[in-house]
Structure formats: C-alpha cells, structure tokens
Specification:
The protein has 10 helices and 13 strands. The protein folds into 3 domains: about 170 residues, PAS domain (Beta-Lactamase, 2-Layer Sandwich), CATH 3.30.450.20; about 90 residues, Orthogonal Bundle (Helix Hairpins), CATH 1.10.287.130; about 150 residues, Histidine kinase-like ATPase, C-terminal domain (Heat Shock Protein 90, 2-Layer Sandwich). It is rod-shaped. By secondary structure, it is an alpha+beta fold.
C-alpha cells in the first residue's frame, strides 16, 4: 500500500515502453528487409549492366551470331563465356535470344525452353525486349528462399536488342542478417527496458514525493497541528493542491485561535457574571443576617439597611436585564422589527431623557442638528437605546460643569452622529476592548456599571449595519462616531 502509486506508474511506463519496443521491432523488421532487398537489387543491377555491356562488346568483336559459340565446341561461344560470368558474378546468368526460343544458362551451360522458366518470367522478358530494365522478386528456381531477378537488354552496335540478360540471385544472408538484427534489437530493447524501469521507479517516487508530504501534513492537521505547512512550491496542479492545504492549515489555525479566545471569553464571562452576582448577593446576605440577629435596632439604621438591599436588588435586576438584552441581540434568530423612521427624532428623544440625569451633575447636553428629516430604516426603540447608552456614559465620565456635544450631519453616502464628552478619556490600549462584555473602567464614576452597556450598543449597531468609531485621549475626552448608511 505504501508504494501503490509507484508500482502503478512504473507499470504504466513499462507497458508503454514494451509497446514501443514491439512497434519498433516490427518497423525495424520491415525497413531492414526493404533496405536489404533494395541494396541487393542495386548491386545485381550494376552487375547485370556490366555483363550486358561486355556481351555487346563480345558480340561486336567476335562477329558471332547468337548461339554459335554453343555449337562450335571451342569454348569461345556465349555458353563458355556465360559459364565464366556465372562463376565470377556469383549469380545465375540466363541469356534469352531475341526470338524467344533459346535460353543459355551459364550455371549449367545448357539450353532450356520457355516452358522451363517459372511462371512470370515471360512477362519480365517481354518488358526487357521493350528496352526496359526490370526487377522481379516473385519467381524463383528455389522455392522458400528469397530471390531477386534483374533483367536488362543486350544490344549490338546499332542499338538493336538481340538478347535479354537475366541475373538471378538468392538473398541467402538476408534471413540471417535479419535474425541478427532482431537479436541485437531485442538485446538493446531489454537493456533499455531495464534502465527505463529503474528510471521510471525513480521518477515515479519523485512524482509522488509531494503527495506523501501532503498526506503526512493532512494527518498532522487531523491530529490538531494547524501550524504545519507542506513547504511545496510547484507551478502545477500538485503545487495548487499544496497551496490549498497550506491555506486550509492557516484558516484552521485562525479558527482554532478564535475558538480558544472564545473559550477564554466564555470562562471570563462566567467568572465575571459570578463575581457581579456574588457581590450584591453577599451584601444582601450580610444585611439580612444583621437584621435577623437583631444587631441593629435603631429605626434609621434599619431603614438604611433596607435602602441598601433595595439598591442591591435594583443592581441585580439591571444586570439580569442587560444580560438578557445582550443575549437576544447576539442571537442570529432574534428578529428586529425595522420600520421607516426619522433618525433625528430618535436622537432628540434620547437627549431629552438623558438631560435630567445630566442636570444632577451640572452637565449640559448640546444637540446640534438641522431641521431636515433624516430617513432611516430600523428599530426606533433600539436606535434610541443605542444613543442613550453612549450619552449615559458621556455624562457618567464627565466632570461637573462640563458639557456633552452631540451633532447630526449629512455625509456622502449617509449620516454621521457624533457624541463627544470632555471627561477622563479612555486609554489607547483599552479602546479595542471597550465593546467586550464586562469590560469596564474601574473608577468611582463607574461603580454602578455592569460592563454590558457598550456591548449592547455595539450589537444594535451591527444589526443595523451602523459603524461605530471611538476616538479618545486621556484627560481630554472621548468621541463616539456613528456612521449610518443611506437607506
């Protein structure tokens, strides 16, 4: 299983090479045969032309008629000459007279008739007497052996054809040469297959090496190691797959980090809510124990204890209400009823409700907005609640005699609401965390805060596609900007 792909690729390469070898062998056999026969024909043709030229000169010099040499018995006729040529030319030499009646065979020095020639020879002789040089591989005196016959005309001094010269030769060495060639080819192909097999194994392993790396990386990702990467950089499909695995690892790492942060926030939430609930409950328990044991008897003191317990109960109720409100807003299934509303009216109503609280601290709230309507599609009550939370914080962290400035302006692509105070300000390192649950400024001015106001405002803004930007400097003040889209 470990090298399954390697074996398959090696098998594919071997099959391709084997098919290539078989095709190459067949082509070699055919081309070698054709080439050998062609060379033999060329050599035989050269001999035939040389012999025909010699016979022409012999006929002109001796002044003999065809066939006289055979009958004179002196060895000076064609028969004796053909016998000599037959031995020198290493081929059978046949000379056919122009009347087509006699055949002189140099090999035996005998005469044969046309009937003694194999089938097809008459057609070859007929073409030769037409002045053509012809070759034939179809007939043979020796069946089963490859032969070549070349026919050339023999001419006298005036160019008249007086005989046809046939050279007939068997290609005895061709079969052996072909067998030797095939053996050499088989040996070379076998050596090539062995070398190619080793090379194919090497290439196959190199090809699957990145796949093995990616397999190992994915196994480690499954085990929870999201920091690992393949380290493969290739400009091909395997490189793309490796890049996708690396991207997957990065995203899983990010998700894992977010999960850990979420778990930490959940633990912090449980810890904070436990602390927030424990404090008023502990105070109430202590007050009730004092009253139950009769340690306090004065009417004014008892009344003060009741007042403290009522204040603690109010704090618990406000904390529970804020938790429920935040939970609802964070639930994606919780629907907000959005209607067409006037944003200016919601802001004005929130300012009016906060002015009573600001008056107790001698703080003035200045609202600057135009008289034009500001249409917006949203939940009127939630938008008013969002403004009230920010204005309440602005008043809470402002000093007596200071002011809170609020402006509503039309901007390109929407509207901007700015709520600015000139109080204590927020430390720069705390700004990214102010919208987290239970994150609050630990000071006397915020002793009654639950740490849930800004998270609630942030969730309301998020459900309405409103962007909140906080700008603040220590001892200079804080400004919250609400960027409303033009809906």
């Amino acid at each position: 299983m470990k090298y399954k792909i390697t074996k398959r690729l090696t098998g594919y390469f071997s099959v391709v090479l084997l098919l290539f070898s078989m095709i190459a062998g067949v082509l070699f056999w055919a081309l070698f045969t054709w080439h050998t026969v062609a060379i033999h024909e060329q050599e035989l043709t050269k001999r035939a032309l040389a012999i025909a030229d010699t016979l022409s000169q012999f006929q002109q010099t001796a002044g003999l008629g065809y066939g006289s040499g055979v009958n004179n018995g002196r060895g000076g006729g064609y028969g004796a000459y053909l016998k000599f040529i037959d031995e020198v030319a290493m081929s059978k030499v046949w000379l056919v007279d122009q009347n087509g009646q006699r055949i002189e065979m140099g090999h035996r020095g005998s005469a044969l008739s046309y009937d003694n020639l194999p089938e097809g020879a008459d057609a070859l002789i007929e073409k030769v007497y037409q002045g053509n040089m012809e070759t034939n591989q179809t007939f043979s005196f020796l069946p089963g052996i490859s032969t070549v016959t070349v026919g050339v005309p023999v001419k006298n001094g005036d160019g008249t054809i007086f005989a046809a010269l046939l050279l007939h030769s068997s290609i005895d060495g061709m079969e052996q040469a072909r067998r030797d060639g095939i053996l050499i080819l088989v040996f070379c192909m076998s050596a090539a297959l062995i070398l190619a097999g080793g090379l194919s194994v090497f290439l196959a392993r190199r090809f699957i090496s990145p796949l093995q790396v990616m397999s190992s990386v994915t196994e480690q990702i499954i085990e929870g190691d999201y920091q690992i990467h393949t380290g493969i950089r290739q400009d091909d499909e395997i490189g793309m797959l490796a890049a996708n695995i690396d991207e997957l690892s990065d995203r899983l790492s990010k998700v894992d980090l977010e999960r850990k942060e979420l778990d930490k926030m959940r633990q912090d939430f449980v810890s904070n809510i436990s602390h927030e609930l424990r404090t008023p409950v502990t105070v109430m328990k202590g007050s009730l124990e004092v009253l139950d044991q009769g340690l306090v008897t004065g009417q004014e003191e008892v009344k003060e204890y009741y007042h403290q317990m009522l204040s603690d109960v109010s704090c618990l109720q406000r904390l529970v209400d804020d938790l429920l409100e935040l939970s609802r807003l964070q639930n994606a299934g919780f629907r907000i009823e959005k209607i067409k509303m006037n944003l200016s009216d919601a802001l004005s109503e929130a300012v009016r409700s906060m002015r009573r609280l600001a008056a107790k601290k001698d703080i003035e709230i200045h609202l600057e907005k135009g008289e034009f309507p500001v249409p917006f599609y949203g939940d009127y009550g939630r938008i008013r609640q969002m403004f009230s939370i920010i204005i309440d914080n602005a008043v809470k962290f402002s000093r007596a005699g200071q002011s809170v400035d609020i402006t509503l302006q039309a901007e390109a692509g929407g509207y901007t609401v700015a709520i600015t105070d000139y109080g204590e300000g927020i430390a720069e390192e705390d700004i990214p965390h102010i919208f987290e649950r239970f994150h609050r400024e630990h000071s006397e001015r915020n002793s009654s805060g639950s740490g849930l106001g800004l998270p609630i405002a942030s969730q309301i803004a998020k459900r309405h596609d409103i962007e909140i930007v906080c700008k603040s400097r220590i001892n200079e003040g804080t400004s919250f900007l609400f960027l409303f889209p033009d809906k």
